[in-house]
Amino acid sequence: MLRSTPPQPALPTFVPVVVIGAGYAGLSAALALHDHGVPVLVLEGADRVGGRIWSQRTPAGVLIDHGGQWVGPTQHKLLALAGRFDCATFPTWDAGEHLEAWQDGTVRRYRGDGPDDAPGAAEYHEAMARIDAMAKEVDLSDPGSGPTAGDRDSETVHSYFRRTVACPAARVRLDLAVQGVLAMEPREVSVLHLAFYVASAGGFAQLMETRGAAQDARFTGGAQAPARAIAEHLGDSVHLGVPVTAVEQRSDLVEVRTGAGVVRARHVVVATPPPATAAIRFLPALPAARARWIQRSVMGDVAKVHVVYPRPFWRAAGLSGVASVYDESTFGVVFDNSPPNADRGVLVAFSYGDRLRRWSALGPGERRADVLRTLARLFGPAAREPIDYLEKIWPEDPWARGGYAANPAPGSWLAHGRTGWREPCGRIHWAGAETASRWNGYMDGAISSGERAAGEILLALAERASRSG
Ligand SMILES: Cc1cc2nc3c(=O)[nH]c(=O)nc-3n(C[C@H](O)[C@H](O)[C@H](O)COP(=O)(O)OP(=O)(O)OC[C@H]3O[C@@H](n4cnc5c(N)ncnc54)[C@H](O)[C@@H]3O)c2cc1C
After folding, report:
1. CB 274 within 8 A of CB 297
2. How far is CA 243 from CA 42, 188, 375, 393, 400, in A?
3. Do 317 and 454 reside in the same domain of the chain?
4. CATH number of 123's domain
5. Which of 275, 291, 366, 440 has its CB 3.0 to 4.6 Å from that of 401, i.e. a possible disulfide?
6. Pocket test for ligand 1, best of 280, 404, 444 (most atoms within 8 A of CB)
7. 7 band by pLDDT with thresholds 50, 70 and 90
């Protein structure tokens, strides 16, 4: 049985390992330790598990994912977890013609990964190939190392594109691609971080494409289903509604403080997003490199808007529901997020970066009118008549404070990355999608980070046992 508030369950006074945060990172760390017979306690501040993954039924009964939703074929950790807990997936719908709304107001239909004859398309692909080549030079275990890392971490993606891509239309395409994959503006991240992110996914196309790539499939029971299954498996070890306020390291123990009491542990896994980690008080203070890394890791700005219709009416018109929007509209990308049996039609629109900052400042009625106006421009007047309309503005989420993930500010890999990124601080071990080498920023990365942190602890416990035995 999962424990939830109220009433507050009593916390144990001692457990070998405390995990802070029940997103995929924390749950995977706990699962790996549990599998090895190590008693573990998961403390989650929110009233649900999953963190940046939240599956919910709309009033019309359609299961949607407010946060992460897709899984790709090279995301082996997530697929293995889904397989272990019998969580089925189904292919993302992408049959039909895609749409591209260009800056001059034209809307073009195309098939495949982009309209080849569109403005800037050829130069865009050339620039992507150059980023892929840069990505091959990144050491995934130490991205700030290597002879070119210094220059690349000192230049923003914005200035790099202005310096190396002559065609303005190609730059417009590249800007939307970066906004789409990082939920940040190109001026906010360094070229090195972009190259690392691309390398971590296995290439730019892996981040961008649907079939065979990151957007390949969705979970039949929602992307939260494996997280819920792990929590059920861990049972009473998972406590919800217990935010951790402070972590104090003593000589042989760590004290974890919460409003519901203090728990002592041999090791602690902190599996919270960087802004949430910054809100925890660490005693003694964290080493400067780790503290700076946390402070300089900036969450992206993203919102997902789900618009539900009686049927996926665009399919009858030969459209896939996929649209890229290059003008000043609220959202940059739209996908068909209908359920597998298509008994309802669902469009999901992503807003990020500057677009989100403008749109989220509007009132709720204006926001809705704005979204429906653009959807109608793309898919026709039927788009104005939804049966459900749901928004999730992630910068307003009290726990995640943004999404998809945090990305280090330019210069941070060089200055603080080597030890600040994820090196344990004594008995404190760091997990979270942001600390992953593979699929950094994704569910898959969160899982591997949790497993890595569990591995660090298993090693330390084995060494302790051999010393005392
Ligand atoms: C809109 C959106 C779309 C995305 N799309 C995809 C996608 O399609 N595919 C994909 O793979 N990834 C996607 N992602 C990214 C993915 O969701 C994240 O990378 C991943 O879920 C992060 O997992 P995590 O465990 O590292 O962190 P989180 O999921 O953020 O978990 C951290 C947990 O810590 C808890 N917490 C915070 N502070 C405290 C505290 N003081 N005490 C106790 N608990 C605390 C939080 O409540 C949370 O449950 C998306 C994200 C967003 C926001």
Report:
1. yes
2. 11, 30, 39, 22, 13
3. no
4. 1.10.405.10
5. 275
6. 404
7. low
Question: For residue 110, is it within any domain?
Answer: no
Per the CB < 8 A criterion, the answer to whether 373 and 313 are in contact is: no
The answer on pLDDT for 29 being more than 50 is yes
Q: Are residues 317 and 461 in the same domain?
A: no
Tokens found for residue 116:
């080849």
Q: Tell me how far apart the alpha carbons of residues 6 and 239 are, in angstroms, rounded to a whole number.
A: 11
**Selection from 458, 451, 441 nearest residue 25 by Cα:** 451
Pairing of strands 388-393, 345-352: unpaired
Report CA(158)–ligand 1 centroid distance (Å): 27
Q: Are residues 126 and 204 in the same domain?
A: yes
**Alpha-carbon distance 401 to 414, whole Å?**
25
Average pLDDT, the chain: 96
Please indicate whether residue 305, judged by its CB atom, sits closer than 6 Å to ligand 1: no
Q: In this structure, what CATH number is given to the domain that contains residue 274?
A: 3.50.50.60
Over residues 162-207, the pLDDT tens digits come to: 999 999 999 999 999 999 999 999 999 999 999 999 999 999 999 9
* Ligand 1: centre distance to CA 260 (Å): 23
**218 and 325 share one domain:** yes
